[in-house]
Amino acid sequence: MSTATITQAQSKGLRQQFAETARHIRAFAIELYVAHGGWFAHDAKRDEQASRREMLSLAAAAESHSPSLSAELRHFASK
Q1: Pairwise CA distance, residues 9 & 70, whole Å
Q2: Secondary structure (DSSP) of the chain
Q3: pLDDT digit string (tens) for 14-42?
Q4: Measured between alpha carbons, how far is 56 from 52 in angstroms, rounded to an integer?
């Protein structure tokens, strides 16, 4: 077995790269779905208020290490 054969056997092919990318995209989509509690908002007003409270608490937590992030979160919570 030559060095070229060993290198070729260890490197990923294009099919494996696409499959890995698809797995990462699928995992991200699942995490996003779970983070938002599903697609349907049962009580939009209550969910909106909870989201605003969460953003404001995140802004308070980020104040010490990132004032600009904190300001952005407060800006989005005010809309």
Answers
A1: 49
A2: --HHHHHHHHSPPHHHHHHHHHHHHHHHHHHHHHHTTSS--SSHHHHHHHHHHHHHHHHHHHTTT-HHHHHHHHHHHH-
A3: 888 888 999 999 999 888 888 877 765 45
A4: 6
The three-class DSSP label of residue 38 is: coil
* Reported pTM: 0.42
Mean pLDDT (the chain) is 80
Cβ atoms of 77 and 52 within 8 Å: the answer is: yes
| Domain assignments of the chain as residue spans, ordered by start | 1-39, 41-79
